[in-house]
TrEMBL record:
GO molecular function, one term: isomerase activity
Protein name: Phenazine biosynthesis protein
Organism: marine sediment metagenome
Residue spans crossing the bilayer: none
Cross-referenced InterPro entries: Phenazine_PhzF-like (IPR003719)
Pfam families: PhzC-PhzF
GO cellular component terms attached to this protein's record: cytoplasm
Amino acid sequence: MKELQTEGLTFYIVDVFAEYRYSGNQLAVVISGNRLSDEEMQLIAKEMNFSETSFITSVENYDVRIFTPKVELPFAGHPTIGTAYVLQQEFIKSKTKTLSLNLKIGQIAILFKYKGEITSEIWMEHKEPTFNGFFAPDLVADVLNLNESDIDGRFRIQGVSTGVPTIIVPLKSLDAVKRAKIDQEKYYALIENTQAKTILIFCPETYD
């Protein structure tokens, strides 16, 4: 057991992208100030075991760090929005229109919209995208346990980043999206020498 100097820390559990309670993407937001070391933040994120945990290291300056259970991230979408909501609700406590979070990647602007006194929408500005390597459709299809014919050949498979490099994979149908299942061994072989480490699949069809 490793002792952590966490007595008196305040944290919030936030459901981001949720239409109702206890849904959406879970996020832990910890008000840490400068009390925690990098190691302690990583251990807390591991203990929380959500996809991400954010740490507000300065409430006054909106300084934020984001950790998965394994590593620190320079940026991630739902932790940015969820953390901004906690700052607006618990510390700013007014109908502010914008604020800028200071993340590892730099400043990210947040826009709030309201219905009466209730925060109704939160928007986030992304950094300009950067584009890197292309990927062979047959290799990516193999990683996803799909046929190469499931890949939408109108678009190339490419690494894109607005903070976290991601392999963007176009599929032809919603059925292909549902059938996609990552082969872990082939996935790690694919990303071994690439900047992008995550995969995002999409298709032109939507759910009813």
